[in-house]
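Dear colleague,

Following up on Tuesday's group meeting, I ran the structure prediction for the three-component complex that the binding team flagged. I've pasted the input sequences exactly as they went in, so you can double-check that nothing got truncated or mislabelled along the way. The C-alpha cells for the whole assembly follow below. Feel free to forward this to whoever is handling the docking comparison.

Inputs:
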Amino acid sequence: MSVTTALPPLVEFRNLYAEMVTFDGVVKVLNGINLTIQKGDLIGLVGETGCGKSVTAMSIPQLVPQPPARYTQGEVWFRGENMLEKSGEALRQIRAKHIGVVFQDPMTGLNPVFTIEQQMVDSILCREDALGSTGFPQGLLPVNRRKRQAASDRAISLLKRVGVPEAEKRIHAYPHEFSGGMRQRVLIAMAIAGRPDLLIADEPTTALDVSVQAQILRLIAELVREIDLTVLLITHNIGLVAQLCNRIAVMYAGNVIEVGPARSILTAPKHPYTRGLLQAIPTAETARGTLKGVPGMVPGLIHPPSGCRFHTRCAFAQPRCKISQPPLLTTGDGHQTACVLYDSVGVPDEKHGQLV
Amino acid sequence: MKLARFLVKRLLLIPIILLGLSLITFGISHVIPGDPVKLAAGPQARPDQIIKLTQEYGLDRPLPEQYVRYISNLFQGNWGYSISNKRDVFHDLVTYFTATLELTLVSTLIGLVVGIPLAIISARWRDRWPDHAARFVSIGAVSVPVFWIAIILQIVLAQNLHWLPVSGRFDPRANYPTTHTGLLLIDTLLAGNIPAFFTALRYIIMPAFCQSLLVIALITRQLRGDLLDILRKDFVLVARANGIPERRIWTRYLMKNALIATISQLGFLIGFQLGGAVLIEYVLDWPGIGQYALKAALLLDFQPIMGATLFVGFIVVIVNLMTDVVYRLVDPRIGFA
Amino acid sequence: MSLNPLSEIPSTSSAPPLLVTNSEPQNRLTRWLKDHASQLSDIRRGLFRFSRNRLSMIGVVIVLLGLLIAITAPLWVPYPDDVTGSVNMSIRLHPPSADHLFGTDDAGRDVFSRTIMATRISFEVGVIILLVAITVGVFLGAIAGYFGGWINQVIMRFTDIMLTFPGIFLALAISAALGRGVLNATLALSVTWWPGYCRLVEAQMLKMKEEDFVAGARALGAGNLRIIFRHILPNLLTAIIVKASMDFGFAVLNLAALGFIGVGVLPPEPDWGSMIAAGRRFIPISWWYSTFPGLFMFITVLGFNLLGDGLRDLLDPNATVR
C-alpha cells in the first residue's frame, strides 16, 4: 500500500489465487496476487509471456472465461466492491460505466460486417442504459431516434479526439477500410466512451508499427490527464513503461514480485528477477557479445516450483526459498519486493499476512 | 456500376458452361448403345419411318454438323419431343419447373424456420443436452432415406389418420386455379381464392416437409459451426468488455455475421433441390421436373432426359450466380472485383 | 542439507516424460514411440475428446455393429436361401413373428435375412464407390492444384460442370444410358462423387504447395511426383478421411435410392431400396415389408453420419476447437 495517500484504492487485489483446468492438468496461473492501484495511477504491469498479467488484469472486469478458469482464493476489489461476486446485469453495468478495455489485436477487435458508426453508437447507447438490460433499443420511436442521433454525434467527437481524420465521413466506413493504428484508435474511443474510471490496456501497441505505437501511447497519456483516467497498462516491453508509467508492477509466474514508483524500479530494482530483466535490455552502451539474460526457462505452471517460483533460476536462492512464496515486503517509499533477501531490511507488510 | 460489370463478366461465362453441359448431353446420347433414332422414334416405329427420321434428325451427317444442329435447335426452343406423352419437351420443362420451384421454396422456408432456431440452441447451450438433442435431430434428418420417410408419412398421416392427402399437387376433384406465376400458393392468394389456397397448402406440406429435412440438417450444421466460430472472435470479447448486453450480442452481432456465411450454403441447397427432388416427387406424385425426368428415364424416353438434364444444369448455374451476387452485396468485405 | 541447495530442486518441465530415458533407447519400438511422442499424445487427447462426445460414441457403436453384421452375416443369417431368391408362396406376406422377425415378403422370403444381407452389399458397393471416387478425385485434384496453369483450368472447369448436376440426376441419366444393374449404378455414383474430392484436394494443394516444407523438399532434389505423393498428400489425409466418413452414409443412401427406382441393384438381390419399392404395393396392410428395411437403413446411415460428424469435429482443423 502506498504511503503517500490515504484514499481508498481504486483497485485492490487481495491474495488472489486462480487456476485453469486444461487437458494436461491444472495450471496454477495466479499464486496470490497482491496489488493496489490508486486513482490517477498509470501503472504498468510487466512480465514475460505466460506470467499471468492478462489474467490478473482481466479479473477486474471478470472477462476471464470461468469454465476453464476458477478463482480459488482471495478477492478483487474495485470501487469498494468485490468483483468476484459480481455477475449478470450488475457486472455488465460496471463494465459499461466504469471500466474500459483495449485489447491487443486491433485487426480483429471490430465486427467486420457493421460500420464503425453502428458499433460506436451501440457502445455509447448501452453505457447510457438506452439499450436496457434486454439489449433491444426499445423500438424506433422518435425519442430513441433522437438518442441515436445524439450518440452518433458523440461518436464523431470521440473519434476526433482520438485522432481519426475526417471523422464525419469515415465513421460510416467498415473496419476493413481502416489501418491497424486507426482501428486501435477507434477501439480506444469505444473504450473511453463512457468516461470510465479505469482503462485496462492489454498490450495495446504490440501489433502495431513502432511509429504508430508512439502515437497511441501519447494518446493514452493525454487521456489520463483530460478525463481523469486511471490506466492499467499490460506489456512485456519495459521501454514502454519507462516512458509512460508512474508506477510499475513486475510479475513472474503468477506472482507480483516487485511493485513501486517507476523511477525507483528502473533505477534501483531490488528483486533478482527484475534486475535480470533490466540487465537483459541492450542499450547503446552494451558491449557486443555481452547480452545477458536470466538463465533457465519460465517454469510450467501445472507443476510449479515449490515456494518462491523464481528460486530455480535465482542466483541468490537460499534453502528457505523452496518452502514458501515470500510476501511483498516494503523496501522503500511505495516500493515493495517479494524476496527473502529483503527480509531483514524491509518491513513485512502486515496487511498481507505472514509467510504462507 | 461495379455490380453491372460483375454481372456481365459472369453472364459471359454461362454460355461456356452451358456449352460444356451440352457437349456432355450430346456425348451421352451418342455414346449409349443402341440406335438413337430408334430410341427417339420409339419401339413401335416402322423401318421406313426410321429411315425418314434418320434423315430428318440429320443423323447420317458427320458428328460436328450434328452438334451444331443440336445447338441451334436448342436456341430455337426445340428441345426435342417426348414419345411417352407426345408433347414438346421444352414446353413440358417450363410447366413442370414451376411446380418444382414452388416445392423448393416452401421446403427451404420450412428448413430455415426450423433450422435456424435449432442452430442457435445448439450454439448457445453448447455440449449440454439441448446441443446434443439438436445435433441428433439434424444428423437424423440427413440420414433418413427420403423416399422411405415419404412412404411412412403417407401411411401414417394420409392413409391412417387422414390428416393430409396422399399424393399429388391439388385436389383432382376441385377446379384447378388459374395460374399466373405457376406457383399455386401465390396464384390462389392473388385471386383471393382462399379455399383453394388451403387446399394447395395441404397438398404441399408433406412433400415440402420431406424435402426440408436435408435443408434443416445442412443449415443447422453450418450455422452452428459458424456461430461457435464467431463466438470465439475478438470482437465479441470487445463487445462484452464494452458492456453490451449478452442478448444484443446474440441478436445483432452473431446473427448477422453467421447468416452471411450461411448464404452460400443456402444457394447450394436451392440449386440442389431444384434438380434433386426426384424421389419425393416420384413417391408423392408431385408433378415437377424430377418426376418428369424420372418417368422419362424409366421409359428410356431420350429427348426428355437430355432436355431435363440440360435444363437443370442451366438452372443451377443461374442459382449459383445469384447466390454469388447476394453474398457480395451483403458482406461488406467482399467487393465485385 | 547439502551445500548446493539447487541440486535438490525437482524437475520443472511442464509435461511428464512419456518414457524414462536413462540411456540408449532399447529398440526400434521405443525409439519410434519417443520420436512420435507428441503425435501420440495428440491422438490420446483426441480419442479422449472423442469419447466424451456422446453422439459420436453412439455412432461408433452403430458402425461397429453394422460392420460386424456385414462381415459375419453369411454365417448366421436365419434363411440364407431366401436371400438369393427362393420362393415360398405358402408363407407370403406373413406379419413379423418369432420365426420371421421382420415378416415375409410377397414371395415368402424372410425380410430380416434379406435386410441383413442387403447391409453387406450396400457396404461393399459404398466402399467401392468411395474408393473409386477418391482415387480419381484426389489424383485429378492434386495434379490440378500442383501444376496450375491450363491443366488446372481444364480440370477444374470440367469439375465445375460435373458439380452443376445434382447427383441423383446424373446417376439417373448414366444408369438410364448404360442400363440397369449394380455395376452401372456403382459406376454412375462414382462418377458423381469424384468432383467433391477433386475440389477439396485442389483447394488444399494450392495452399500447401507454397509452404516451406515443399520448398525444402524440392531443394533436396525431390521430383514433382514424389513431392505430391510423399509430402503433401499425407497432410490432406485427415481432410479426405473426414469427408469420406461423411460421404459414406450418403453413398449408401443414393445406392438405395437407385435401387428404389429400379436402376440399381436388381432383384432378387437384396437391396434396401428395391425392397422398399416392392413393398409399396402392399401398404398399408403388409406394412412391415417397406418399413423394416427402411428403418434398418436409417439407423445404419445414422450411425455413419454420427461417426463422421464426430470425426469432423475432431480432425478438421477448420472446425471449432474446444
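Residues 1-22, 318-322 of chain C have pLDDT under 50 and may be disordered.

Cheers,
M.
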